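Q: Fold this one first, please.
A: Sequence and structure below.
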Amino acid sequence: MNVMSDKGTFFCRTFEEKDEAGVKKIVEKAFPQFLGGQFWNWKYKCNPNFDPSLIMIAEMDGKVVGCNHWLLRNFMLSPSLETRAILGGDLAVCPECRGKGVGSALLRSQRASKAMKDLNPSIAYTFAVPQLASQLHSPVAGYVPIRVNTTSYFKILNWQMVAERAALLNERIASGKCTKKLGKFNLKVLLRISNTPSLSLILSENGVYVRENVVDEKPNVTITGSLSAFQELRHSKNIKRTIIIALLKSKLRIVGKPKYLIALQKNVWLLQEVLGKK
């Protein structure tokens, strides 16, 4: 991305090894209050999550005049749900180039970079000074400001809720209040959803039984997929059609012998019953 100013043309690109000295100098000058400015190695170079592809620099006439660092994080939404996130770190521009649109250009370039597309994080967040947020982070980088107080979160995925829904379904089946008929079968289904504990569901004529964090289970059917694919199944009005589309798009992978796959297909409503959104 090129940015024109009265100082010249700035070019934004991904960090390269030869840029380290220039970036380190800008960062240490911009943030002298942290470790006396000597924190490039501590915060970035020696960080186990350091990824050079998540550093965007602004260059003018072969000189680094600005940089933006993002760090990869594992974001815990709940004790049982972890997702990939990006933390917007230090945005620094050399003093003589400030107020020229370099910071905004760095943020735009970062959001559009190949690294961001490859990582495809669920969340991108930052801790911004309110005055800067109004100038840079929204709407330039697509951030949504939150209240500066306690924020409540809800669980997207909750295996305890699945167990409770299964118990309610089993009560309906036992009391004869379930309108759908169950054939005589015993099917072990292992769910492997990315960033979540594994879950085993035992489907039988008596209902559904739930086992979390199963490591020694030998399932009849294994369903592997992303959290987004799982969410689509939960909210689907036609779960069979949604599964087929997810399989075609490689969002889901279902493995099992044909007789077990047929049994699952006939009783797939049981999965939606216990994994549903309500």
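Q: Good. Now the second chain.
A: Here it is, same layout.
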Amino acid sequence: MLKKLPRSPSRWLSLVVVCFTVLVVNIDNTILNVALPTLVRELHANISELQWIVDSYAMVFAGLLLVSGSLADRYGRKKFFLIGLLVFILGSLGAASSTTVHTLIAFRALMGLGSALTVPASLSILNDVFRNPKERAKAIGFWGGTAGLGIALGPIAGGLLLSHFWWGSIFIVNVPIGLVAMLAAVFLVPDSKNPKAERTDIIGALLSVAGLGLLLWAIIEAPLKGWSSDLVREVGLSSLVALTGFVLWEIHSRHPILKIKFFANARFSIATIAEVLGLFGLAGGLFMQTQFLQFDLGYSPLQAGIRILPIAAVVCLIAPLSPICARLIGVKLTVAAGLSAISGGLLQVSLSSDVTAVYTTVLPGLLLIGFGSGLLLPTATNSVISSVPQGDSGVGSATNSVAFQLGGAIGVAVIGSILSTRYQNHISLALKGTQIPISVLHTISGSLGGALTVASSIGGMSGHLLAYAAKEAFMSGGKLSLGVAAAVAFCGAIIVLAFLPSRQPADHSHSE
């Protein structure tokens, strides 16, 4: 049995430090979205490269969360919290100084490593400090709300920085904030570990990273290389083999990083699925929406960030109220309502998206997405974390965070790929029969930003027609991709209604 910590007011200071850090890490999940059009212009990135800049962070984050949660349980949660912050700071410095797309992708991956060390340790610390079920639900509610708020605040934070500084400022700002968080954590966050924690499952970690990385590569690169190309099919098949091998290894391993037996508990497994499907729509929608606001509507990064702010405002309002909602109507209905609202919001934005759209036509959808996220994230998180034993809290919190990152990464990959495929098909048809040099054609088909740059350089009626055709192709892809995201979130709501228990049982999650 773990030693019980005294219930002192300092646990609330620990919550403040942990939530502050999680806010920074989750802001970095989406702060880059508003800078994507800038990276198209400054680093000449195409849609595929934009997806990798976003997903290299999420891929490493998700792939290493499980092993880092296990290590934190074994060697000390506070240690890994601090080490993760340091790695995150170093990755931010490298990203800010990058001069090529590939260098930026590499340092984003390093930042993902830092986040993977920090986030599961942070939630595990809260799970250990707040032993009272009601207090723990409230603390996790704030943690989940902070995570969702960070995701929504990223675009406006990026817009503010880009309006005054160069694009690297969105990363360099992490350095002083990270140092303050480290200093506060040294004095205010207690250390804890599970003295009975098992050995770390290195083979499982390698299989999970390989499987996820190959899967994302196949999805992201398919529009460029062809969905039916031998390479894409081989890599996709390899990802399935690696992921199947991971599951089989975890079932038979004596010290797994992911205890498959947890998934027999519907409160754990269905809430995890709900998070994956909800984040699929939220992250994928933001990837498309920030480009729509800047490229199609012509807003600056700051103006685009401000117009994403309603999502953050609604998340901030609803997330702290979600535990009350769960007590009144049950966990099942609260999570299902959250997914349904996300689905409805995505569908509204999808139906309103065309070249004649204005911001007010998509605003109702953005508000619905924020409302749904505020209900879903804290409620599902509490369901996942409270379903595992206290000694496995690091692994439980890591699994919860994997759901966040996996949903977001696959959402960006799938929505980005649908968007890219539809865009390339439509722009190719529009340009059929025209005499355009191959290099210029690649720029036009690579991204809407590239096409608009070419259109601007051409000028006149020809430039105007090219810009209109490119915007129309992009919005056609956006309409389809957001429609798919809405369908995915709605399927999540159906799964939750069918299988998630409505009420939490008496708290036994902290027994060893």
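Q: Anything worth noting on the second one?
A: The longest helix spans residues 460-499.
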